[in-house]
Amino acid sequence: MPNSTKLTDWLDWLLAMHPSEIDLGIDRVQAVAKKMNLLPYPMPVISVAGTNGKGSSVAMLSAIYEAAGYQVGVYTSPHIIRFNERIRLEGRQATDLEIINAFRVVENHRNGLKLTYFEYATLAALWLFAKSALDVAILEVGLGGRLDAVNLVDADACLITAIGLDHEDWLGKDIAKIAVEKAGIMRPGHPCVCSDPEVPDSLIDYAKVHKVPLKHINQDFWIEKNNQAWSFLSVQSEHFSGYENLPPPALLGDFQYQNAAGVVALISTFQPRLPVSQNALAIGLRQTKHPGRLQKMIINQQNWWLDVAHNPQAATALSGFLTQQPLPMIAVFSALADKDIQPMIRTLLPYIDTWYIADLFAPRSASLQHLAESLQQAGVLAENIVKCASIKEAVLAAQKLSPIPVLAWGSFLTVTQTLATLNHG
Predict the structure, then answer these.
(1) Is-contact 360 411, C-beta < 8 A?
(2) 3-state helix, strand, coil in the chain (%, to 5)
(3) Of 145, 159, 157, 129, which is closest to residue 60 (Cα–Cα)?
(4) Could you tell me which residues come within 8 angstroms of residue 141 by beta carbon, excluding any fewer than 6 positions away?
(5) Residue 365 DSSP code
(6) What is the pLDDT of residues 207-251, one digit of tens each?
(7) Alpha-carbon distances, residue 346 vs 167, 340, 343, 378 (angstroms)
(8) For 33, which of 172, 256, 315, 327 is 20 to 30 Å away at the CA?
(9) Nearest to 183 by CA among 220, 218, 209
(10) Cα 66 to chain center, whole Å?
(11) d(CA 125, CA 131)
(12) What global pTM score does this model have?
């Protein structure tokens, strides 16, 4: 255990202790949680799973509940710039000292059990939330659901966002099987909402077998929208029937209406426990922030768009947004080697003129050769591919082509490294 007051030292130690980035299973982390007296968990828990949209949905949920006056704990992953982004208490990021103190508590209770970086972070967040006596904890699943560390606590309500192919080496190559992994966060008798308009039958069947009251978009609730406002409509129930004239989500992209609908549906199912007014809903939707999701920056009169789209489904959502933007764009692009890169590229071919690519130099990152081959196999001409030694070099080269707009995308790490360059040079 580091004898250090530097969070970076602790994070380096965690990575060295359990080098495997992914080690699915909740037995280890649940055993430590019991020793830390975190089970049963002392406050309402909302868990959010899905392939795409879960981070945005968590951001909306937290903004709305905070607007309603609740003290909220939020756990998300991965982070964009600082680890502290993963743990939020009452609208602020946890401090280095708070996180280190939580890590020390975890270390004092793990009794030699090896925990991954994510498992350690999950336990630290849960301990901090419990210690702070918050009104609700909102937890974003890291990978899958059933075997994810977040699933060590029983969710009082859960939200499952769009389900697509991703992390196939761990979750499988079949949507039906992936949906069941996501459904693992459900608990009998506790409500679940699915905001995927093409909800897999396997998820519906899982809910029926496990006696989970499931509501899903376009059957139990739906939206009607225009340019100025939108309405949420739901099957009549004892507690909820709908909202009219809600403001558009602050997060950009038409797909955010789908996420917002799921969020409002979940909040409606939880009204008896955590009441929220329409005014709080509106304020939260307007105030939601989520860096790296269609984030716009203007650097020296050049428009930069940053998006963490890192699988084919997310790339398709991104392409829908780009149809409304000035074209063509330059791309700063990189991805992880285990992603389905070619379909991602093909989806954005109509919008990108020149591709600046670089290795991310991180675990699982695609090599420069892999990226270049994927681009050419997807239909990009060799003369439109610029190979760079790093994302920093790619960003600086793209800046020289101002005012042509730039899209940085393909991985969370692409956005992280792009932001580091744009903010600090």
Answers:
(1) yes
(2) 40, 20, 40
(3) 159
(4) 47, 48, 49, 50, 54, 148, 150, 151, 182, 185
(5) B
(6) 999 999 999 999 999 999 887 899 999 976 555 568 999 999 999
(7) 20, 11, 5, 6
(8) 172
(9) 209
(10) 19
(11) 10
(12) 0.93
